[in-house]
UniProtKB/TrEMBL annotation:
InterPro entries in UniProt: AA_ABC_Transporter_Permease, MetI-like, MetI-like_sf
BP GO terms, sorted: D-methionine transmembrane transport
Assigned keywords, A-Z: Cell membrane, Membrane, Transmembrane, Transmembrane helix, Transport
Domain spans labelled ABC transmembrane type-1: 13-207
Predominant subcellular localization, coarse grouping: membrane
Compartment annotation: Cell membrane
Organism field: Anaerovibrio slackiae
Protein family: Belongs to the binding-protein-dependent transport system permease family. CysTW subfamily.
Pfam families: BPD_transp_1
Entry protein name: ABC transporter permease
Length: 217
């Protein structure tokens, strides 16, 4: 690989980190409350509302069933409406967020479901409100598991951000396609893959470490 490609790889890496970090932040802000709603509105839960639960569940399942490549193309009008363009790293974050929110919601719901019912019942017996149970019991108890699940989502986002490069989303995927594939530069393709592997390893290590630190058991 020639020295002139190093700045391009550095720029592409920065774009990928930007896409993944911002998309993950937005998706987490929306996805965690969604997961809490999916759990707490279910049958025999503290905010039981089966109609809302079924509607949310149906929407989440519908979005999760759409392959990411198809989703990117299908919501181009929405992307243009939100950011004014369908090309570039900022535009790529719209489908990344939309794909991640339902995934995070289901992961959070699963983590909350694993909390023993006795803990919630004890909080209720002491007069805790539903909001207090959510913020002081459910989320703290499930946080190690939630962090572990969010780590998986980040890794998925890294791969999806590379796919976003196929439609002009920038980042490492765009670099691999434009220079590695279209210009027949296997060294660029290999370098891109290596960088992506390193990113995933770093994310997994950091996520495991944080989850372990939060686990008080």
């Amino acid at each position: 690989m020639s020295a002139d490609m190093i700045p391009l790889i550095s720029k592409a890496l920065g774009e990928t980190v930007y896409m993944v970090a911002v998309s993950m932040l937005i998706a987490t802000i929306i996805g965690i409350p969604l997961g809490v709603l999916l759990h707490t509105t279910n049958k025999n839960q503290i905010l039981e509302c089966l109609v809302l639960n079924k509607v949310l569940g149906a929407v989440v399942n519908a979005v999760r069933s759409i392959p990411f490549v198809i989703l990117m193309v299908a919501i181009i009008p929405l992307t243009r409406l939100i950011v004014g363009s369908s090309i570039g790293t900022t535009a790529a974050m719209v489908p990344l967020v939309l794909a991640s929110v339902p995934f995070i919601g289901r992961q959070v719901e699963t983590s909350l479901r694993e909390i023993p019912e006795g803990i919630v019942e004890a909080a209720q017996s002491m007069g805790a409100t539903p909001m207090q149970i959510i913020t002081r019991v459910l989320l703290p108890e499930a946080m190690p598991n939630i962090v572990a699940q969010l780590t998986t989502v980040v890794i998925s986002l890294v791969g999806e951000s590379a796919m976003a490069g196929a439609i002009g989303g920038g980042g490492l995927g765009d670099l691999a396609i434009r220079y590695g594939y279209q210009r027949f530069r296997p060294d660029i393709m290999i370098a891109t893959v290596v960088v992506l592997i390193v990113m995933v390893q770093v994310v997994q290590f950091a996520g495991n470490a944080l989850a372990k630190k939060l686990d008080k058991r």
